[in-house]
Design goal:
heterodimer; A: mainly alpha; ABC transporter involved in vitamin B12 uptake, BtuC; 0% strand; disordered N terminus; B: alpha/beta; six-stranded mixed beta sheet; three-stranded antiparallel beta sheet; 31% helix; globular; disordered C terminus
Chain lengths: 281, 257
């Protein structure tokens, strides 16, 4: 028996890759999300779209329910419903609806209806907290591919349109006078937001996706002197929060998704204090 | 066929259900300074924005000379405090300009010291100058300025108009600007267009200031401010244009001037 084990173990190790370790998959998934959420989150902060992010990410739960009911991939369902919500919100905003109230209604309605819909899907009820708060420790190789593919797409979109997005965010009239189309830039951000929601669902869950967008960007704001450094720093802060949160989760047996956000919030508090100290001194 | 840099032909603009501009035709020739005057709510900014393609026109068309380079200075620029943006970085949006170029332009408009300062920390006068610098960096054939002295005090205003006049002389750019300042503008413009939803009258400052339509809108001399309150809504000048208009003239606000 002992000799048999000794001969099989080395073979198993050589066939394994680093992706077989659930912790490494979790870290890579979180970092992938942070890389996309940092720069996109900076635009969310600059454009004061925080509640917009909430509405879109809460709609993801409804996407989960639909995907499970129709036997479609969850990522696809989430993406479709998040995109529909993002486009709805953007359209209503363009028509001059009172956004504070409209988003408050849409964000909570999407969440409530999503939760009701999930309760109809057999077997999904038990996983509810995974959809709400993420299940980063259960990320599979396929999930990882989806997350990195989506994150790369979001980053690519933002890098490709960077100057135009920045100009349109600053002032739509200036952008239009420079020959840009502010509506197109807004649509690109909307699309990137829906993609990020779909990608981040598994990692931090529907309730905390908006936090992953906003907190790292807000943390970076205090330390950055240009839009570029703010976006890059937000990605770094998000990545560090992922690693710190996973460490906390392992060490103290806390839920991983909320731990990541808690670490990000701590970083934010430090950044604000640092900024206040610097101004005072 | 036309030497004009930009030309509007019978354009109409509707915002919501209201027709804000009706049957506007105008041209700007190379090198000239054209000022659009009118009370608040008369559609001045909307006219500029329609010419620039920022708001859609419902009728008519806007023609630009091929390859026309525009420099635009908006009426207001609110920058969210959450965006870290130095004046230098702002000048490179959306097109990059190198350090030497931005430094030279900031010096040209009289604020060389603000390059590395955040946009949200600039004074009103500095911000206006940085906005002008950004408009000039495109090496425009036509500068479009929407109330460029908004928020400046009287000496600041005079200095700013002088600066505009200087840069125009350097660059040879034409200027199309909106103002509701009667005196400074009248002396600095080649041509004035008096707007109140439609073009009431236009011509050289002297011609316009003696036109009955202009007097009806602005009154005379120092009584201009007062005259706005007493504006005669029924003034008739349809003979000038060969069109009739039935929209009321009472939409300007009383806090004007």
């Amino acid at each position: 028996m002992t000799t048999g084990t000794a001969t099989t173990t080395p073979i198993m190790i050589t066939s394994r890759t680093m992706f077989d370790d659930f912790l490494i998959r979790a870290a890579l998934a979180g970092i992938g999300v942070a890389l996309a959420a940092g720069p996109l989150g900076s635009f969310v902060v600059w454009r004061r779209m925080a509640y917009f992010g909430d509405a879109t990410s809460h709609a993801a739960i409804l996407g989960v329910a639909l995907a499970l009911a129709l036997d479609l991939p969850v990522g696809l369902g989430t993406l479709a419903v998040a995109l529909a919500m993002a486009v709805t919100v953007a359209t209503l905003a363009a028509r001059g609806w009172a956004m504070d109230t409209t988003l408050g209604v849409l964000a909570h309605a999407a969440l409530a209806i999503g939760l009701v819909a999930v309760s109809f899907v057999p077997g999904a009820r038990g996983d509810l907290s995974a959809w709400l708060f993420g299940d980063i420790l259960a990320v599979s190789k396929a999930d990882l591919a989806f997350i990195w593919g989506g994150a790369a797409l979001v980053l690519g979109l933002i890098l490709w349109r960077w100057s135009a997005l920045l100009t349109a965010t600053l002032n739509e009239d200036l952008a239009a006078a420079s020959g840009l189309n502010p509506n197109r830039e807004r649509l690109i951000l909307t699309l990137a937001l829906a993609l990020t929601v779909a990608v981040a669902l598994k990692v931090v869950g529907a309730l905390l996706i908006a936090a992953m967008l906003i907190i790292p960007a807000a943390t970076a704001r205090g330390l950055a002197r240009s839009p570029e450094t703010m976006a890059a720093l937000a990605a770094v802060v998000g990545g560090a929060a992922v690693l710190g949160g996973l460490g906390l989760s392992l060490g103290a047996d806390t839920p991983a998704g909320p731990s990541i956000i808690a670490v990000a919030a701590l970083a934010f508090a430090l950044s604000v204090s640092l900024g206040a100290l610097r101004r005072g001194g | 066929m036309t030497a004009a840099l930009i030309e509007a032909r019978h354009i109409c603009v509707q915002l919501g259900t209201q027709e804000v501009l009706h049957d506007i035709s105008l041209q700007v020739a190379p090198g000239e300074i054209v000022t659009i005057l009118g009370p608040n709510g008369s559609g001045k900014s909307t006219l500029l924005r329609a010419l620039l393609g920022i708001v859609p026109i419902t009728r008519g068309k806007v023609l630009r000379r091929a390859g026309l380079r525009l420099g635009y200075m908006p009426q207001k620029l609110h920058i969210d405090r959450t965006m870290p943006l130095t004046a230098r970085r702002f000048l490179s949006l959306p097109l990059r300009h190198d350090r030497a170029e931005t430094d030279a332009m900031l010096a040209r408009v009289g604020v060389p010291e603000v390059a590395e300062r955040p946009m949200t920390g600039l004074s009103g006068g500095q911000l206006q100058r940085v906005l002008l610098a950004r408009a000039l960096l495109t090496r425009p054939d036509l500068l479009v300025l929407d109330e460029p002295t908004q928020g400046l005090d009287q000496p600041g205003e005079a200095a700013f108009y002088q600066l505009i006049d200087e840069v125009r002389r350097d660059s040879g750019a034409a200027v199309l600007m909106v103002s509701h300042d009667l005196h400074v503008v009248m002396s600095a413009s080649d041509r004035v267009i008096c707007l109140n939803g439609h073009i009431c009258c236009e011509g050289t400052p002297r011609v316009v200031s003696s036109a009955p339509e202009y007097r009806a809108l602005f009154g005379l001399g120092t009584k201009g401010a007062l005259a706005l309150y007493q504006h005669d809504h029924d003034h008739d000048h349809t003979h000038d244009h060969g069109h009739s208009h039935d929209h009321p003239h009472h939409d300007h606000e009383q806090d004007h001037v």
